[in-house]
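pasting for ref
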Amino acid sequence: FVQRFTASVQFDARMADQDIQGSLAHADMLCAIGVLSSSELEEIQQGLTQVKREIDEGSFNWSIELEDVHMNIESRLTEICGEPGKKLHTGRSRNDQVATDIRLYLRDQVRLIILEVERLLNALLDLAEQEKETIMPGFTHLQAAQPISFGHHLLAYFEMFKRDRERLQESFKRINTMPLGSAALAGTSYPIDRERTAELLGFERISLNSIDAVSDRDFAIEFTANASLIMMHLSRFSEELIL
């Protein structure tokens, strides 16, 4: 019961791709600084490729005894390639690994949502152009107030979703900061190359304070706030369509 209560793998398994992506970059960096040999790096790369294949095919055995996505993947990797799998965790902690995975995951989601919002914006523009001469009553305080065009009414939603896109774009800058290398909270004594890892993972910058890096979830709260505004605008738009 306690294992089921404390395990997060039921939720964070969705970040498996990002966890593997982060581990591949971390392994590359460890090889560059001499912690891993080139043969060990190759074993880890092949092992993680196999893990990803098992996950994609649905044959991967997720275990609540291993708590989360990180421990599940690391355990399976060690089963596959032995000692090199254990060495992969050198210079990092689950703390900075979790923080990195969440940022990688949200970065992918923000890109996807922006594309969908832009599809909606283009559709609204096209429909507004078609309906610019269509007259309808404009309401205020639940009463008909002034005649407006349906195109103008649609462009009100265009403005709402445009702001939603802008908020996502602005939040992306804060999401795209790499905390990996902060370790548990005070960094590591290994001479890691954080800039190399950040470049491999496509991060714009590295975090500057390790304590803040592993504890910061502002970017996640900002994302959920932005997502809730999008859903509010979609709900309002859908309600009008149904009515």
